[in-house]
């Protein structure tokens, strides 16, 4: 019996493959762990450069590296490591394309650039942030996809 929120994909041989989407809890755990790893990598880089560069240049390098890592880190791991960043691996989830195949570089890039939109608070006046729009999109989609997943036709 397949869960209500599962996606069933038929292969060319008409064999059904059931893709069960990851829940919000496991996605959140993976997200937090990956953010901690990204921050640790960027912080290490900035502290090393801070010893040889002026403070203002170090701050600029830190911000640039943080933006670069926020995109490059998940793209690298999703494409090269079976759809799993270290956080996703820890949470026991992975990202695949809409047909259950491995994710491509363009798909991973689109879903991770769209993370900027996902992180916009849905109610900025109330200060409700931390993945606001993406969280709302996940709750409204039966496969728990955020905007980046919808744009790239991916499933976690």
Task: Walk me through the topology.
Elements: E1 7-10, E2 16-19, H1 24-50, H2 55-80, H3 86-91, E3 96-97, H4 105-113, H5 115-118, H6 132-140, H7 147-152, E4 154-155
Antiparallel strand pairs: 1-2, 3-4
Helix pairs in contact: 1-2, 2-4
Strand proportion, as a percent range, falls in 5-15%
User: What kind of oligomer do you see?
Assistant: single chain
Cα end-to-end separation: 20 Å
Count the E strands. 4
Helix fraction by DSSP (H/I, runs of at least 4) = 55-70%
What is the H/E order? EEHHHEHHHHE
In DSSP terms (H or I, runs of 4 or more residues), the helix count works out at 7
Taking Cα atoms only, what radius of gyration do you get, to the nearest Å?
A: 17 Å
Low-confidence stretches: none
The order of strands across the largest sheet is 1-2
| Morphology | elongated
User: Structural class of the helices, strands and pairings?
Assistant: mainly alpha
Main sheet attributes: strand count, strand direction, barrel closure: 2 strands, antiparallel
- The residue-averaged pLDDT reads 84
